[in-house]
């Protein structure tokens, strides 16, 4: 039985929705693999991945099956009870990472909120209320709640909402000396993205993360890695910290964890987790059976050598072609990033024009992203097929050609 829907159009957004987004002029209605179709039936190749979320593309059969089976079994019972999908996914995340304990919630902001609250709670319980300061990086992004947007180092997102949360300092990314100068015995946590996502697809130097780990140890501060965007296979390892060999105390995951279904997790150790006793923190939907069933299916596919080695191979295919296109058309000089989180850094002549490149790509039937005004970002499915990579990059080339010759 098909459900009859009322006809909707893009203009309805402007009539009914809060204007905090400016969505594209077309409305996607269906997706399969790395392809998407809009209301007019136009086909697009998706290298945006729902902003690094659609880790297995659209409508992956394993995810559809997991969700359908769970939808016919149990939807929601709250955290007054536990449930089997939560316990299965929690166990698998612990077995696959440094972590010993997992807290499930619904979004990257919520995972970071939990991480920051836990860091402050641990310091408060062990050292007293004075030890509450958090150090984060400029141009970082950690979410949109008042706490997470204050920790994020982009004033354009945090200004204009009244007094900010106190005790937060920002230092330049990849600058160990600046971190060394800022950290003190009042610091409860240093918060870093191993690869800055929204800040321009900028990977950390290994020595920087190693130094941050040592500084945290020396000052009894916790090292928090925000892997909302870099995690779940995106880098070519399950989590980016594994590339660096630097283990955090707390890690946040979201985006790709649910492959498009809203779920997030905060991972930590038993020793730290014990500070979150019953009643200290919670969430109504966190650990929801639907989300955890899908998350388990995602993890089972992503955390295999086949998928992770595939990410590395596909990354090389993207990088090689993008570098050649950069040289040929002269819009960007550098391709940076890791795995299938890549950024084309626009040159002086094109600085600030990432949105123009996005629009030109869209006109050629390709969905890409920006990471700030100066970087064109690619975050495709980790299982994107080679023919889709080649076709998508051919469309990207047509867009670059038109821009360069305009």
What is the topological layout?
Elements: H1 11-16, E1 28-32, E2 35-38, E3 43-46, H2 49-52, H3 61-71, H4 84-96, E4 101-105, H5 108-127, E5 133-137, H6 146-151, H7 155-158, E6 168-171, H8 176-182, E7 187-192, E8 195-196, E9 202-203, H9 206-218, E10 222-226, H10 241-244, E11 250-253, E12 264-268, H11 270-273, H12 289-302, H13 305-329, E13 332-338, E14 341-346, H14 354-363, E15 366-367, E16 369-370, E17 375-378, H15 386-404
Helix pairs in contact: 3-12, 4-12, 13-15, 14-15
Pathway: Amino-acid biosynthesis; L-arginine biosynthesis; N(2)-acetyl-L-ornithine from L-glutamate: step 4/4
Pfam family, one: Aminotran_3
EC number: 2.6.1.11
> What is the CATH class designation of the largest domain?
Alpha Beta
Structural category is: alpha/beta
Question: Terminal Cα separation, in Å?
Answer: 50 Å
Tally of separate helices: 15
CATH superfamily name of the largest domain? Type I PLP-dependent aspartate aminotransferase-like (Major domain)
What's the helical proportion of residues?
Answer: 25-40%
Keywords: Amino-acid biosynthesis, Aminotransferase, Arginine biosynthesis, Cytoplasm, Pyridoxal phosphate, Transferase
Subunit structure: Homodimer.
Binding site for pyridoxal 5'-phosphate: 108-109, 141, 226-229, 284
Binding site for N(2)-acetyl-L-ornithine: 144, 283
């Amino acid at each position: 039985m098909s459900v009859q829907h009322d006809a909707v159009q893009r203009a309805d957004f402007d009539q009914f929705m809060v204007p905090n987004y400016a969505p594209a002029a077309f409305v996607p209605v269906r997706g399969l693999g790395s392809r998407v179709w809009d209301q007019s039936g136009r086909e697009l190749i998706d290298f945006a991945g729902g902003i690094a979320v659609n880790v297995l593309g659209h409508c992956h059969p394993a995810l559809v099956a997991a969700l359908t089976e769970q939808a016919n079994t149990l939807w929601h019972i709250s955290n007054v009870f536990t449930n089997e999908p939560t316990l299965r996914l929690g166990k698998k995340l612990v077995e696959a990472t440094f972590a010993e304990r997992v807290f499930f919630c619904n979004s990257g902001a919520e995972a970071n909120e939990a991480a920051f609250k836990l860091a402050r709670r641990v310091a408060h319980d062990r050292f007293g209320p004075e030890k509450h300061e958090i150090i984060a990086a400029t141009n970082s992004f950690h979410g949109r709640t008042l706490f997470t947007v204050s920790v994020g180092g982009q004033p354009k997102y945090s200004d204009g909402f009244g007094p900010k949360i106190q005790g937060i300092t920002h230092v330049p990314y990849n600058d160990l000396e600046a971190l060394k100068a800022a950290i003190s015995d009042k610091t409860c946590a240093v918060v870093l993205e191993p690869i800055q996502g929204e800040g321009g697809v900028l990977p950390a130097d290994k020595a920087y993360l190693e130094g941050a780990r040592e500084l945290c140890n020396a000052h009894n501060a916790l090292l928090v890695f925000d892997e909302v965007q870099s995690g779940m296979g995106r880098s070519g390892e399950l989590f980016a910290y594994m590339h660096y060999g630097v283990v955090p105390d707390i890690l946040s995951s979201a985006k790709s964890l649910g492959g498009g279904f809203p779920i997030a997790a905060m991972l930590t150790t038993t020793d730290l987790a014990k500070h979150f006793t019953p009643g200290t923190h919670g969430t109504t939907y966190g650990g929801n059976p639907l989300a955890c069933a899908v998350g388990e299916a995602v993890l089972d596919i992503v955390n295999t050598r086949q998928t992770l080695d595939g990410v590395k191979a596909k990354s090389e295919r993207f990088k090689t072609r993008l570098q050649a296109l950069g040289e040929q058309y002269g819009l960007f000089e550098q391709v940076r990033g890791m795995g299938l989180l890549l950024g084309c850094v626009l040159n002086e002549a094109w600085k600030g024009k990432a949105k123009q490149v996005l629009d030109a790509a869209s006109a050629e039937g390709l969905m890409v992203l920006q990471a700030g005004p100066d970087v064109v970002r690619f975050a495709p499915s980790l299982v994107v097929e080679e023919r889709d990579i080649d076709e998508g990059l051919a469309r990207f080339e047509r867009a670059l050609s038109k821009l360069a010759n305009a």
